[in-house]
Design a protein that fits this description.
With 158 residues, this protein is mainly alpha-helical. The chain is 59% helix and 9% strand. It has helices at residues 15-82, 88-98, 100-103, 121-131; strands spanning 110-116, 149-155. Strands 1-2 form a two-stranded antiparallel sheet. The longest helix is centred in the first third of the chain and has 68 residues, at 15-82. The radius of gyration is 38 Å and the shape is rod-shaped. The termini are far apart.
Length: 158
């Protein structure tokens, strides 16, 4: 009686049980493959959606920053239309009254560039170094050509 409960050898298994075992393995493999495909597709869609959202956010930030920089450029252009020979002190007053650095967090400083004949460089250098503010480094003009030099003023946030 007990001998009938135990499987004695694979050859003695009924054919039906062998087919059921093979069918079970095939169904499990198919189910596993299907689940793997579904999860892969879902993960790819989620990653694509995250990328789209981050891209949209980045584009919006860049568009806003470009609009901000354009506003700053337009306002400084208007200043130079009013008076093309603005002094450094007038420039400082303008940038401080505009609160450019406080209002526009992406802007670290505002620069004023003066073009001058090379013959005036010595006088400009001396004037800038005599009038420089406490804590500022000495001004040295590096961009020179025989006929033109560029003097750069950087307005630091105070």
């Amino acid at each position: 009686m007990l001998r009938g409960l135990f499987i004695q050898s694979p050859d003695q298994l009924p054919r039906r049980w062998r087919l059921n075992g093979i069918l079970l393995v095939v169904v499990c493999l198919a189910f596993t493959a299907l689940m793997w495909w579904l999860l892969t597709a879902t993960n790819a869609e989620l990653a694509q959606e995250r990328l789209r959202a981050q891209t949209d956010k980045t584009v919006n930030v860049l568009e806003n920053n470009i609009e901000t920089y354009a506003d700053v450029l337009y306002s400084t252009r208007a200043l130079f239309f009013v008076d093309p020979s603005i002094s450094r002190d007038e420039w400082d007053v303008y940038t401080k009254t505009q609160n450019t650095i406080e209002r526009y967090s992406g802007i670290q400083n505002v620069t004023y560039i003066q073009r001058a004949p090379a013959s005036q460089l010595g006088a400009i250098e001396n004037e800038l170094n005599d009038n420089r503010r406490k804590g500022e480094p000495e001004v040295v003009i590096r961009d020179r050509t025989p006929t033109l030099a560029v003097v750069t003023y950087v307005t630091n946030p105070d």
